[in-house]
């Protein structure tokens, strides 16, 4: 059903919320400005008051995903100072969201594969987000405990990189094989990866 196109004080927010849904679930290349306008009920003129074009909206989409997707993980890390509690809790959230069709893979990996070689601003934005994400994971593990044991390694950045590689691999495999159960394996693999770094 078509929505009425009306300009509101929250025009930018409406466009971003629509982009969050369409870019993530449908894909950036498969989503046109016309569909964004139609679904959000925003006038084309209003769109260009806030964004120079689809590329700028794509960059804003990535920044919002950083706040929301990675932000949820940040909240989980604050809630669970013991990594052996954090890992299964976070994986349970991913499994639940996948079952509810709310999780269709890492938004940054998906976006990068969809736009590979098309936009340096996209590449730079994703790289910046991923580097920051890796650093936050590194800081968390260095401060966290694991089943009451303390951090013993000298290289938290190494663990953070391995953690992200394991996460990306199992999530992408789960998506390509259409098997939610593989995310249960993700939790086991992450726990086996992390535990040796504590004593």
TrEMBL record:
Pfam families documented for this protein: TetR_C_13, TetR_N
Ranges of the DNA-binding region feature: 32-51
Annotated ranges, domain HTH tetR-type: 9-69
Name the record gives this protein: TetR/AcrR family transcriptional regulator
Keyword list, A-Z: DNA-binding, Transcription, Transcription regulation
SUPFAM superfamilies: Homeodomain-like (SSF46689), Tetracyclin repressor-like, C-terminal domain (SSF48498)
InterPro entries documented for this protein: Homeodomain-like_sf, HTH_TetR, Tet_transcr_reg_TetR-rel_C_sf, TetR_C
GO MF, one annotated term: DNA binding
Record-linked PANTHER family: HTH-TYPE TRANSCRIPTIONAL REGULATOR YJDC, TRANSCRIPTIONAL REGULATORY PROTEIN
């Amino acid at each position: 059903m078509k929505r009425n196109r009306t300009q509101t004080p929250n025009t930018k927010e409406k466009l971003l919320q629509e982009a969050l849904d369409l870019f993530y679930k449908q894909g950036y290349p498969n989503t046109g400005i016309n569909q964004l306008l139609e679904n959000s009920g925003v006038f084309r003129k209003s769109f260009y008051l806030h964004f120079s074009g689809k590329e700028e909206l794509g960059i804003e989409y990535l920044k919002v995903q950083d706040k929301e997707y990675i932000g949820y993980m940040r909240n989980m890390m604050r809630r669970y100072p013991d990594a052996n509690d954090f890992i299964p809790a976070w994986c349970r959230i991913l499994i639940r969201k996948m079952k509810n069709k709310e999780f269709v893979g890492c938004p940054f990996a998906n976006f990068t594969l969809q736009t590979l070689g098309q936009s340096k601003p996209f590449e730079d934005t994703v790289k910046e987000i991923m580097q920051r994400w890796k650093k936050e994971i590194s800081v968390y593990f260095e401060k966290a405990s694991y089943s009451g044991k303390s951090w013993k390694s000298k290289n938290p950045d190494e663990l953070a990189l391995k953690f992200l590689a394991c996460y990306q691999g199992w999530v992408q495999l789960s998506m390509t094989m259409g098997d939610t159960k593989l995310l249960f394996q993700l939790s086991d693999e992450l726990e086996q990866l992390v535990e040796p770094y504590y004593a």
